[in-house]
Amino acid sequence: MSTGFLTNTAVVTGIDTTYDPTKAIALTSSDTVGSGGANIPLPQAVYLDNLEIRVEPSGAGATTLTARITYDAEGDDPVTDDASIALGVGITNTAISGGVGVIQAWKRMPGKTLTLYLHLKVNADTVDVSAGYARLHWTDSFTPGVG
Q1: Looking at the domain assignment, is residue 147 inside a domain?
Q2: Which of 18, 38, 119, 127 counts the most CB atoms within 10 A of its CB?
Q3: Can you give the residue range of the structural domain that contains 27?
Q4: What are 63-67's contacts with CB under 8 Å, separation 24+?
Q5: Rounded to two decimals, what is the model's pTM?
């Protein structure tokens, strides 16, 4: 059984109440072969489990994110349906919010997929996503009720 996650390496700012392709967040495989090796692509049959995300909201109105995963940065080739993510305020740093979205989708990946794209919109105000704070977890096998 293999598991891993895709994560973002770039900061994306000003995510607002509509999907904006210019704010697509590239989620890239961070798993590599050996020291300094090439990134490992997703398995061709993969179970996308959940999305962890931490954001910095511009105001108190941001309480829910809507997330969509796509194969393309434009957002026209969907991998998943929209997922709603409730944002909770940080315990020690109230300027940070975060949440976990349930994705749960078996997918057959085309070729050697290294990158998927995360599209976000927020219910109010705007949010920023820092590098490394959007993580899409995956596994190549899944048994309901185990693990």
Answers
A1: no
A2: 127
A3: 3-31+41-139
A4: 63/87, 63/123, 63/124, 64/122, 64/123, 65/99, 65/101, 65/120, 65/121, 65/122, 65/123, 65/127, 66/120, 66/121, 66/122, 66/123, 67/101, 67/118, 67/119, 67/120
A5: 0.89
